[in-house]
Amino acid sequence: MAQIWKGVVREYADFMPEHILRDVVTLGEGGNALIAAPAVGAMLKEITGVNAKVFIKFEGRNPTGSFKDRGMTSAMSAAKGKGAKVVVCASTGNTSASAAAYATAAGILPAVLVPDGKIAMGKLAQAIAHGAKLLQVNGNFDDCLVLARKLAENYDVELVNSVNPDRIQGQKTAAFEVVDELGDAPTIHALPVGNAGNITAYWKGYREYYTANCSSTLPFMWGFQAEGAAPIVLGHEVDNPETIATAIRIGKPASWEQAVAARDESNGVIEAVSDAQILEAHRILSAEVGVFVEPASAAGLAGILKKARTGTFTPDLSPSLDKGEPMNIVITCTGHGLKDPEWALNDINGNSKGSEVEPVKVQNDLSAVASILRLPAPMTERDL
Ligand SMILES: *Cc1c(COP(=O)(O)O)cnc(C)c1O
Question: Using alpha carbons only, what angle is made at residue 195 by residues 306 and 201, rounded to the nearest 5 degrees?
Fold first, then answer.
């Protein structure tokens, strides 16, 4: 009989604190198989000579289209278990979309604080569709988070941002899934870093599995911020973060210290990538791998390629390479391309890519269509 996936909290119940298991709220998140990206492996081989098997952990396959659903099932389960009637989050988009969906499933009112301007339409539409009480604050994301925290401190309201430790419990399951599928941890795990909850969660997951003897190694954690929003790289807060990758446009990461710990304990890196590099990786993912992501989600691949090109991606990263075995690289792509589809159609300045996206006009005629597609003539005609 086929096994039906029960959502990450129930699937990994052995690794969940008891208070999350009392009243589980799930939309069936997680359980998404790795996607092989041989095109990326070939690029790395060509640039560096290193043999690598590259896999995409495509979190756009979750119910609301981002990895946030993993943390929301655990946070909302805890909130429901406590009898909460209202949850709040500050969000540039995906957290609010996820919180709204899971609150709806739990019968709880979601309140969402969003910053002025620059919110991807797809995400806002999700929050509204799921019945969130949307409050646009005249401030940036960081101001929204401060306000949400104060609301939760002073009123009977649960905060479901990633500073809520229950979020991390669900999010860490992505690392479990990677190990379950590969049979061990990969050599490198690369991902975007915004508020830094996800890198914190992956590192926690990898360590827990290692401690439980479910894996024999730990990965190097490679986190990538956008150049205009790279506080961890710079070592100081960024007052006006700027990047096209809205999901990582964050100047004061809530889980800053934990991200630095994940980097240092894993002998990893947290580096910056430019918007142009992010868009290049975005295009490679959609046009050469088959995975359509939102810009922030491409930061992990952008970072890997940048390191390859600058010579800081070397074979001695993995002792197994001595035996000539390829190393495994997992890149988390955090959210779906339909969230922010303009980047498939527009260039970095927001202008249409023109001829590339304009359909070719063609007569309603079979041979005209075939000719534009440069198809060889069918057998019967050729034989004549
Ligand atoms: C939230 C989010 C991020 C950033 O994750 P953090 O845990 O804040 O570092 C990156 N990409 C997408 C699509 C997101 O929704």
Answer: 90
User: Distance between CA atoms of 79 and 179, rounded to whole angstroms?
Assistant: 29
What amino acid occupies position 89? C
Phi, psi for residue 49 in degrees, rounded to 5: 80, 0
Which ligand 1 atom is nearest residue 191's CA?
10
Asked whether 198 and 222 are in contact (CB, 8 A), the reply is no
Question: What is the Cα–Cα distance from 21 to 81, expressed in whole angstroms?
Answer: 8
Which of 335, 330, 338 lies closest to 35 in space, CA to CA?
Answer: 330
The pLDDT of residue 382 is above 60: no
Q: How far is the CA of 171 from the centre of ligand 1 (A)?
A: 11
Residue nearest to atom 14 of ligand 1 (CA): 247
Q: At what angle are helices 38-48 and 299-309 packed, to 10 degrees?
A: 20
Are the beta carbons of 296 and 247 closer than 8 angstroms? yes
pLDDT per position as a tens digit, 121-147: 778 889 999 999 999 999 887 789 899
Distances (CA, A) of 201 to 1, 162, 192: 33, 10, 13
**Backbone region of residue 83 per phi and psi (left: phi > 0; alpha: psi in -120 to 50; beta: other values):** left
List the structure tokens of 302. 């952008």
Q: From the CA of 333, how far away is ligand 1's center (Å)?
A: 9
Q: Is the pTM of this model over 0.90?
A: yes
Locate 123 and state its tokens.
Answer: 């995400």
